[in-house]
Amino acid sequence: MQAWDDYLSQRKSAASVAPINALKKTLIEKQRAEREALHQQQEARWAADAKLRSARLRKGWSGLWDKVTGQSKQTRARNELEALQAQQRDRLQRDQLVWAHIQECAKIDKQRTARRQHGLAKVQRLAALLPEHARQTLQHDPRMSGPAIQ
Fold first, then answer.
1. How distant, in Å, are the alpha carbons of 81, 122, 125, 140 from that of 11?
2. Which DSSP helix (H) or strand (E) runs through 90?
3. 119 contacts: CB under 8 Å, gap ≥ 6
4. How far apart, in whole angstroms, are the C-alpha atoms of residue 84 and residue 89?
5. Which of 4, 45, 85, 127 has the fewest CB atoms lying closer than 10 Å?
6. Which pLDDT value is given to residue 8?
7. Closest to 81 (Cα-Cα) out of 60, 116, 55, 53
8. 10-residue averages of pLDDT along the chain (150 residues)
9. Hey, is 138 helix, strand or coil?
10. Can you say how many angstroms the Cα of residue 137 is from the centroid of all Cα atoms in its chain?
């Protein structure tokens, strides 16, 4: 009988959280697309920024003159600093997006847990009522042969 109760509990629990599972699956797909879009956006911005930084370094005689005067060294230092700042900015953006995604998934997990607990409590209340109901039914059923159940 315990195995049957466990089976029913699992079936009811699974049915009650099925919509939440579908919602989570949809959310995960949406989040994956958002992360991919952010990645593409950051790669495009990184390429544009790298091109801009590269354009600051002059070529030919002007580039040679910049090396002689020290301007080239200053430009390279500025480029390195900007590249580091861009890398940190992109990492922060990714971290913020991932953190937001984790929080969204946690909300769904809380809903799923609450529904499972609610369903389990319902099954337990019904299981507690079942023996009393069965006893009363058996005592009052004239079709029952044998002694009354106490």
1. 59, 13, 16, 32
2. helix 71-140
3. 9, 12, 13, 16
4. 9
5. 4
6. 59
7. 53
8. 60 67 90 96 96 93 91 95 97 96 92 85 80 68 55
9. helix
10. 49
CA distances from 20 to 7, 23, 89, 112, 119 (A): 20, 5, 34, 6, 14
Token pair in block for residue 2: 């315990």
Token output for 37? 């879009």
Return the pLDDT at 79: 95
Token pair of 85 as six digits = 């700042």
**31/94 Cα distance (integer angstroms):** 12
H helices then E strands: how many in the chain?
3, 0
Quick check: 4 and 88 in contact, CB under 8 A?
Answer: no
Round to whole Å and give the CA distance between 17 and 13: 6
Predicted TM-score (pTM) above 0.70: no
Cα gap 72→62, rounded to integer Å: 10
- Are residues 17 and 116 in contact, defined by beta-carbon separation less than 8 angstroms? yes
The confidence score (pLDDT) of residue 32 equals 95
CA distances from 18 to 23, 65, 100, 115, 122 (A): 9, 70, 23, 10, 17
